[in-house]
Amino acid sequence: MTSFVSSLASPPLSPLLRLRSTYYRCWYEISRGFTWIRREYHEQPARALPETLTPYQRHRIKTLQLTYGVHFEDQLHISTTLENYEYLDLLDQTKEKLGWEPDRNKELVDVGSLNFYYAPALHAFFHPHTLQGIELEGYRVYTNFYSRFDYAQCYIRPFANTSYTVMDFCNFTGSADGITCFYPFVKPEPLVAWRLPLKVFQPQRMFERMAHSLRPEGFVLMMNHGEDEAQWACTFAQQNGLQLKSQPQPIPPLFPRADVPIISVWNRA
């Protein structure tokens, strides 16, 4: 990965981007009105892995099953199963490439958890004492009329001391031994592409809050889409109270992606 820059200048926001943001802001405000809706979501377990897996993918999943004692397919739908194996594979490669292995039985917070479909992989890798997923738009409703919150309750149900909180992490007042942050929004275009309004784009505050919430011996594990996004994210992190523990590394994903994930580990500055 190329060296970091000390500052990054954002290009002007296009009128089209601002227009789309205004549209999504309306839907964002509407979704916040569905906090009262609760529907119990369940997934039909896959039970078996798909025959379409390549020999390497099948071998890699077998290795993860033996190393971490997991069989996600016994509890989860096939798509969620494969996503959890992918996250666990990325974390396992991080341990090897960075020579880093976190302590178990710690208090862990995940920032930007979506519907927290990867909570099983986090438990398998970190064995946390507590795990809290925090998501800004946790009440977004899918076409099947279940919300992200409903899905999250399904994925965390098997685990003790695990929660899912709908809030802006910038307003988080707790502390943690470890913070995970997968693909944070550090440029406005991806944020709007995910149907979020520009009003919630606050990367400086987010990274400042991470640094403030992290206990003295704690860590932040961050993953970004490709090198360009990683440059932005690392600059925000460095400017807002975090320091690199290990040089960011590209991690080949288990399944094809448009951009190779870049992973980095941070401490408080």
Task: Write up this protein.
- The chain has 269 residues and is of the alpha/beta class.
- It has eight helices and seven strands; from the N terminus they run αααβαβαββααβαββ.
- It has helices at 15-31, 55-68, 78-98, 119-126, 148-156, 188-193, 203-213, 226-239; strands at 107-111, 130-135, 162-166, 176-182, 214-225, 242-250, 261-268.
- Strands 3-2-1-4-5-7-6 form a seven-stranded mixed beta sheet, with helices on both faces.
- Strand 1 (107-111), helix 4 (119-126) and strand 2 form a beta-alpha-beta unit.
- The two termini are 22 Å apart.
- Residues 1-6 have low confidence and may be disordered.
Write the layout of secondary structure elements.
Elements: H1 15-31, H2 55-68, H3 78-98, E1 107-111, H4 119-126, E2 130-135, H5 148-156, E3 162-166, E4 176-182, H6 188-193, H7 203-213, E5 214-225, H8 226-239, E6 242-250, E7 261-268
Parallel strand pairs: 1-2, 1-4, 2-3, 4-5
Antiparallel strand pairs: 5-7, 6-7
Characterize the biggest β-sheet: 7 strands, mixed
What proportion strand? 15-25%
User: Looking at CATH, which topology would you report?
Assistant: Rossmann fold
Shape label: globular
The averaged pLDDT comes out at 91
Rg over CA atoms, rounded to whole Å, is 18 Å
Q: What is the CATH C level class, in words?
A: Alpha Beta
Q: Percentage of helical residues?
A: 25-40%
Write the H/E string, N to C. Answer: HHHEHEHEEHHEHEE
Q: Total number of β-strand segments?
A: 7
CATH superfamily: Vaccinia Virus protein VP39
First-to-last CA distance: 22 Å
DSSP helical segment count: 8
